[in-house]
Design goal:
Helices cover 57% and strands 0% of the residues. With 100 residues, the chain is an all-alpha fold.
């Protein structure tokens, strides 16, 4: 069998092979194609997931090791968010200045 005919035959087999993938049922999303479905109140359901534990801070007794550890983590996460916002602002300003 010539190589062109062999390639065509292989191509037809490859076209038929993945058909079962196209027929698989697709999961349904409540919030649509680009939304984020959440099933409970989790860090992923908040605007800034790394600051999810802020609500717990008010319920933690002051002066204890748990409070200290939580405060330390939240300050680090807040700084990380703040740095990311500053970086984003600088990137936007630089990009806009290059367009002018």
């Amino acid at each position: 069998m010539p190589s062109i005919a062999r390639a065509r035959c292989a191509g037809r087999r490859a076209d038929r092979a993945p058909q079962h993938l196209h027929q698989a049922p697709k999961p349904r999303a409540v919030k649509g194609t680009y939304g984020h479905d959440t099933f409970s109140y989790t860090p992923q359901s908040t605007m800034i997931p790394c600051l999810y534990e802020v609500a717990r801070l008010g319920m933690t007794p002051p002066g204890g090791p748990e409070r200290w550890q939580l405060e330390t983590q939240l300050v680090r996460d807040r700084n990380r968010v703040s740095d990311a916002l500053v970086d984003a602002r600088l990137l936007i300003e630089t990009s806009l200045s290059l367009l002018q």
